[in-house]
Amino acid sequence: MSNRATIVEGDLINPEKKSLPTFGSEILTDSNDKTQIFRPESEKASNFEKRKLIGWLYTFSSAPAGKFYVLYEGKNIIGNESKNDIVLTDKKVSGEHCRIIFRSKSNYLFIKDCGSTNGTWLNDEDIIDEQKKLKDGDIITVGDTKLTLVLIKEII
């Protein structure tokens, strides 16, 4: 005989937390099976899914076949630490290397270095401590990685 069970996302440490989602998928289980599957906080839907897509960066520096990174409105942090929005494995990239920020109210997109060791370059010019406005086709260099900016035309 089998029973129906539901898998839901939740907090393994505090499963009775009232803010747990109540959605899930129904599965069939053995009547003695009391298995529950919890998804860790890190695997839940990211904050990015709530932010508007503005464009992306692509590179052939780190991968011969190419690699791309999505940009969203608000702050996009680039660096070599896993906590960053865009993680580069380049040894010359600092932990928190630079930020790309899009302010939708003013329709303003800019880049700012975060005090990186090797600097951030925009179209072969070191931006040092400046905040520089970005446009479609700009080339951003961090460490040995060259990133080309592609913007969604309806946004900028």
Specify the biggest β-sheet.
6 strands, antiparallel
Strand-residue fraction? 35-45%
Helix residue percentage: under 10%
Spatial strand sequence of the major β-sheet: 4-3-13-12-9-10
Question: What is the rounded distance between the termini?
Answer: 60 Å
What best-fitting shape do the alpha-carbon axes yield?
Answer: globular
How many helices? The count is: 0
Overall pLDDT score = 79
Unreliable sequence segments: 17-29
Structural class, by secondary structure, is mainly beta
H/E topology pattern:
EEEEEEEEEEEEE
According to DSSP, the number of beta strands is 13
Q: What can you tell me about this protein's structure?
A:
With 156 residues, this protein is an all-beta fold. It has strands at residues 2-7, 25-30, 53-59, 67-72, 74-79, 86-87, 98-103, 108-113, 120-122, 125-126, 131-133, 139-142, 145-151. The strands form three sheets. A six-stranded antiparallel beta sheet has the order 4-3-13-12-9-10, with no helix packed on it. The protein is globular. The termini are far apart.
